[in-house]
Design goal:
The chain is α/β, with parallel strands linked by helices. It contains twelve helices and five strands. The protein is globular and about 55 Å long.
């Protein structure tokens, strides 16, 4: 199944029924006011800067064109953004959880989507509520930086690469990742371009075969599984991503390694100049 990655093209090619539902959702949003439960002045300010045609499409498509569910999902996201303030997060707030290099952003795929890596073998933090919150803050910080980066391009989605080589995926790690990505899907629907899973075990492959029964064809098409020798993984991965957009330690030629202190320095410098 082919995937249309450009969300603007998705909006431009809506059917008449989909256009009507988008207008109905837009009309519902115009009726929101500070007199409604849970809606504040900050909420309304966030709404004005956040809602556009692509946003409406993402929520309608993500909630399978159910207008009521899309409205609830969008309202929940705006309430979250107006209180959590994801654009104001600093990397230094999650530096301790980021320093192992278990997750980072580097490079773009051949279509221009930013790439986020998860290197599961590097995730060794103790699982408690504090570390879970730190992990989520770090994930949101990366997402917001990728979204900011995409403003300068036609890209609207993000490619994820999950490296499982050398990893022992414990139940606690798997649950933490699942919970994080469930929240991510609620607050950033239809932001996934592809999820490339490298070196999955036979058990994970078996779980995937089962899980596909409950997923839409459009979602299944976004997942790519690559395993085998290092040369085989490199060859298949570079069909999707140019070698100079992959770090040397991860099948590419880019002379780059994750350095949390440097990432914090760049983040603070950028914020000081805003």
């Amino acid at each position: 199944m082919s995937i249309e990655f450009n969300l603007q093209k998705c909006v431009d090619n809506l059917t008449s029924d989909e256009k009507a539902k988008m207008e109905q959702l837009r009309e519902r949003i115009t009726k929101w006011s500070v007199n409604d439960e849970g809606i504040t002045e900050e909420f309304m300010t966030e709404k004005e800067s956040y809602v556009n045609d692509i946003t409406l499409y993402r929520y309608l498509f993500g909630w399978e064109w159910n207008i009521e569910d899309a409205e609830k999902g969008l309202k929940k996201t705006i309430q979250w953004r107006s209180t959590y303030k994801p654009k104001q997060l600093h990397l230094k707030e999650a530096q301790s959880i980021a320093q192992s290099g278990w997750m980072f952003h580097y490079g773009k795929d051949k279509i221009g989507h930013p790439i986020i890596w998860i290197v599961v073998r590097n995730e060794k933090s103790k699982k408690n509520e504090e570390t879970k919150e730190q992990m989520f803050r770090y994930l949101v910080w990366i997402m917001e930086n990728c979204l900011e980066e995409m403003k300068e391009s036609d890209a609207h989605r993000i490619t994820w690469i999950v490296e499982l080589k050398g990893a022992s995926l414990s139940l606690s790690t798997a649950k933490s990742l699942k919970d994080m990505f469930y929240s991510l899907g609620e607050y950033y629907p239809e932001r996934l371009a592809r999820c490339v899973v490298l070196n999955a075990s036979w058990l994970l492959n078996a779980i995937w075969v089962f899980a596909q029964q409950f997923m839409t064809k459009s979602t299944i098409a976004k997942y790519v599984f690559i395993k085998g020798s290092e040369d085989k993984v490199r060859k298949e991965l570079t069909n999707l991503i140019d070698p100079d957009q992959l770090p040397k330690d991860f099948y590419g030629t880019a002379d780059w390694t994750f350095d949390v202190d440097e990432e914090v320095r760049v983040d603070e410098e950028k914020r000081a100049n805003q």
